[in-house]
Each structure stands twice: as structure tokens, then as C-alpha cells.
Amino acid sequence: MKIPGAALPLIQAPMAGVQDTRLALAAGAAGALGSLPAAMLSPVKLEAELQALQAAGRPCNVNFFAHVTPAADAVRAQRWAEALAPYYAELGLPPAPPVAGASRQPFGAQAAEVLEAFRPAVVSFHFGLPAPALLARVKARGAFVIASATTLAEALWLQASGADAVIAQGLEAGGHRGHFLDTDPAQQLDTATLPVTGSTMPVM
Fold first, then answer.
1. DSSP letter (8 states) at residue 133
2. In what order do the strands lie in the sheet with 122-126?
3. Displacement of CA 52 from its chain's centroid (Å)
């Protein structure tokens, strides 16, 4: 399938926390569709990054998370710290600092408002899709919407919920898998055999 805004059938994977517009621009210059990860960007920072992409005149994919933010659990956090402490000690590292809160935010009304001013060619989501009203705002500005699926059930759900294409994400993605309907590892397949034949939408 033809990827909007890309000369080659390639999309640069967005990597929240470790990249900004520079990688997206480099990917675009090479013929792929560059991606901007936005799950860790404030509305102000998102606007600044999108302005940089717009100034370069290159189409891009803007990626968001669509998860439900977990509630803080001090007891669970302490258990994790205790379980990992021997590994930190073995490597001579100081104990991990306590987690202040979720570092990645789900797509919301403020992000939707910022997007409306820039009209990116592609908007992608991890962990499902945002609420229908928010998704409608994205699609109303002409964005091609893609989202990751780790099972056939998720692909069919995305198709029924308004995605234009699906990113097949297999077990090779490890802890980066964007599963959102079923966390049973037995349902997770490798990319080569991930069954998507029940979906009529394009698969990436």
C-alpha cells in the first residue's frame, strides 16, 4: 500500500523518550515516513516539535498512546524495587529512585487541539485507539490513522473502531508489544505468523 507522505513503503518507528524531530526529518529525507513520538510531550512541547516538522515541509506520522493511565501503587512499586535491588547491587549501581508517576500520557483533548492546527499526514496509536470523539477529531482533519495490533482480535477491533490500517506487531517486539485486549502470552504470535486474514484493512 502507498503510505501517505512517503516515497518508500517504510515508516520510521517512533521511540518515546529517546528521539525528537531530528530523527523524523532524517527518515523523511531518506524517503521513509518520519515519526514523532508524542506520548511524553506536553502540549507546548508537542506544538514546538510539530512547528519544526512543518517548517521543514515534510509529512510525518505523530504517534500517541491510547492506554488507561494506571493508578499509583506504592506497595507494588516497593515490591519491584526489592526484586531488582540484587541486580543493582551486583552491578554496583545505587538503588533505583522511586517512580514519580506515569511518564507516558494517553492521547487527550489538549493533544487533539494541537494536532488540529498542523494536520499531520498520519497519526498512529499504541495500545488501542482513543475515545471515539477524540478519534473523530483526528480523522476530521484528514489524518490517515494506523494502530498496532498483536492479535487477530485486536486487528478486527481496530478495523471496527475506525483505524485505516493496522501495524502487525509480533512477539519480537518483546516488552514493547502494544497489546490492549488480551495480556495472555499464549495469544501473542510472531510477526511472520500473526493471523490478520480476517481483517480487510491494509496491514503494515
1. H
2. 34-37, 60-65, 122-126, 144-149, 165-168
3. 20
The one-character DSSP state at 144 is E
Structure letter (DSSP) for residue 111: H
Contact 146, 167 (CB under 8 A): yes
* Number of CB atoms found within 10 A of residue 116's CB: 13
DSSP 36-66: EE-TT--HHHHHHHHHHHHHHT--EEEEEE-
Q: What is the pTM of this model?
A: 0.84
Q: Where are the beta strands (DSSP E) in the chain?
A: 34-37, 60-65, 122-126, 144-149, 165-168
All three cell numbers of 182? 488480551
pLDDT by residue (tens digit) across 57-80?
888 999 999 988 777 788 888 888
